[in-house]
Design a protein that fits this description.
mainly alpha; 1 helix
Length: about 45
């Protein structure tokens, strides 16, 4: 985990608005292989 004071400079979002999807910077995102067994996956990328 990144210390709270480093979140905004690091990713460009305030704490609480940090989702690995739709980020301003390109960070690797990983999903569990079990996701392949699902017909539909809903993902919230924040507001």
């Amino acid at each position: 985990m990144v210390p709270m004071k480093e979140v905004l400079p690091l990713i460009g979002y305030i704490r609480g608005g940090c989702s690995p999807l739709g980020m301003k910077k390109n960070y690797p995102t990983f999903f569990d292989q079990a996701i392949l067994d699902l017909d539909t996956v809903n993902i919230s990328a924040g507001l």
